[in-house]
Amino acid sequence: MAASGDRRSSRSTRSADTAGPVELTAAQVRADRIIATGLDRPASPPDLLGRLGVQDSAGWSLLALANRVGTGAGAPVVGRPDQAGDVDAVLVWSLRGSPHVHRRTELDALARSLWPRSAESAFASLAGSGSGLRSDGIDPRQALADTAGAMRSIITGPMTKGEASAAVTAAAPPECSAFCRPCGVVHVREMLFRCAALPAGIGLQPGTTPVVLEPLRPRAPARTPGEHRGGVELVAAALDRYGCVTPGELAELLGGTPADVRADLPETVAVTVDGRPAVTTPDLLDRITAGEQGRTAEVVRLLGPVDPLLAARDRAVLVPGRADQRKLWPALGFPGAVLLDGAIAGLWRAKRSGSRLDLTVEWFGTAPALSRRQRDALDREAELVADVRSAASVRLVLP
Fold it and tell me: Regarding predicted confidence, which is higher, 62 or 12?
């Protein structure tokens, strides 16, 4: 993650009073996040397509957007990268090199805020590719700039990821590539390729298999090493969405290092969440403690596998049990989550059978005795999932 290169000042975490950190409960923070991410479906939903965007996997970002308005028809249309002026939402590799839907007008500022401010920031942002570059003694920011330059010159129209990777491998300096065991060939390092796409002005066509890359319109200016700013706004957006976190958790979410996050934190208040240390801002602390939990008491939703509520790294706020956390966030193949009256009560998986969608629920612990209201709400949410996934009918399978 890159952070602001200007307005550097010494910011220190302070407690709300001399007695120590403010004690919060996971229930308070969870309720605040449900409201902050719009899952209570207010008349004016929050803007999820701002700086953080909405993560996508197999098109599930559409359910995340529809879940805030209660209808598939109300969700923004995600267009092709070259549809400037027609469709505002666009799919790009952004945070952590993962596909996210963002507003097109946010992309230039986002690219600047994600550009690493130091070699250490770049190593962290590039994950496995960063480790390889470090062991090979290569400047990661220069490799990122070289890869972005190659992508910008080569990808001038739609290209599959494989075609683009092969062409960039040939055009970029050799140090940008490495042997890939799964592919059995030498090609441009995966995370380097992904993280260079946005600064190169390259987006992704939605719903394509294999992935198709395409230039963004309008084309953003080329990035160069050292050009990084906007980390303050990026950290502020993450704090606003999740209320209170640790710098380490923010670094995991945004990419980069905890030191980057600490440099970009506003004035903060020390808190604990069920005894676990975290920080928030005075305004956000007021929001969390405002007693709004009642707004989430009857919220029932079927959250998609990459819903923004599930993205925070302090997973115990949503799911206290470690075994249940492993089920909801496995290494591969994330399921969806069942939000039942403001708490994560289980998970669900989808299976297509012709034009019918089967949604199978697995509860955490003993199956709840569902009221008629809860069962009717789950049925309505299953219909929403079917609408978003273009299924003619849906069957909700409950244990």
Answer: 62
Alpha-carbon span 38 to 176, nearest angstrom = 41
- Count up the domains in the chain and report the number: 1
**Is 109 domain-assigned?**
no
- Assess if residue 388 is contained within a domain: yes
| Dihedral class, residue 99 (left if φ above 0, else alpha if ψ from -120 to 50, else beta) | beta
Which residue type sits at 372? R
Coil, strand, or helix at residue 111?
helix
Asked if the structure places residue 216 within a domain, the reply is: no
**Does residue 352 sit in helix, strand or coil?**
strand
Which DSSP category does 363 fall into? E
Residue 83 has which token pair? 């549809």
Contact in structure between 116 and 144 (CB atoms under 8 Å): yes
Strand pairing class (393-397; 159-160): unpaired
CB distance 169 to 189 below 8 Å: no
Distance CA(96)–CA(28), nearest Å, equals 28
Note the pLDDT tens digit of each residue in 172-220. 999 999 999 888 999 999 999 999 999 999 999 999 999 999 999 887 6
Q: What is the DSSP letter of 362?
A: E
> Does residue 351 lie in a domain region?
yes
For residue range 307-338, list pLDDT tens digits in order: 999 999 999 999 999 999 999 999 999 999 99
